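Hello,

Our lab assistant flagged a job as stuck in the queue for most of the afternoon. It eventually completed. Since we weren't sure the result was trustworthy after the delay, we are filing this so someone can double-check. Below is the sequence as submitted and the structure that was eventually returned. Let us know if re-running is recommended.
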Amino acid sequence: MAEARLSVFRGSPGEPGTFVDFVVPVEEGMVVLDALHWIQANLAPDLAVRWNCKAAKCGSCSAEVNGRPSLTCKTRLSDFEPGETITVEPMRAFPLIRDLVTDVSWNYEVNRRIAPFQPPADVPQEDWRWQQQDIERVQEFRKCIECFLCQDVCHVLRNHTTENEFIGPRFLVRVAGLEMHPIDQADRLEFLKDDGGVGYCNITKCCTEVCPEHIKITDNAIIPLKERVADRYYDPIQMVWRKLTGRGGEGQGGSAGATPPEPSSPEGQAGSAGSSG
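-- returned structure --
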């Protein structure tokens, strides 16, 4: 039977961590998470590993495999060269709890800082209507499984000094989904500029490269948000235009004061929608 050699990080906060080598028998179709489960069952029952669905939909098993942020349940052992040592370690951007488990609770604190979905106050939910073409742009963002691999790979967050100034790619995706929603009324551009730190992103697209749902984070979420912030706060022509027309700081699409779009025809209307928050 073929074998795989894994070098797995073991350690806890406050003590030196180390990599421990394990040799695992390989069967067809095995992924890195399968190998970790075999190690737990046969060699190291105290190995701490976070996982849940084993179907690449819960985002729980995030780790770094050979230095690349990955879902261990989606990383096949057959993708590596025979005899290659596979290194598995915890996500470096988050505090270590034990072995391969990290504390990602900071992400949920960030999520609470974002203004939730704000529908028109004078339109009852049963009257919310929009065309499929109006929401195609934001549907991609709803695929996020919150594995936080994009947060882990982002160099702005990995240096551990900007977590209070930059919300990271995962939550720029969330804000984009809200800002581009056809009936959302909230205005989050000031939040993006100041608390969200959208200017910190230098669009290297590393977050897009590691996304297991293939969301085009940089092109479809971050760059449009940067453009909206630049138009509002840094474009001198628009500044003069707003001053001449008295339109103040009204945003673009989905910002405060926007009027929900009327459906162009009864065909193809989506049904009543729940909160996008």
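-- support follow-up --
The delay was a queue issue, not a problem with the job. The result is valid. Residues 251-277 have pLDDT under 50 and may be disordered. The chain has two domains: 3-102, 105-245.
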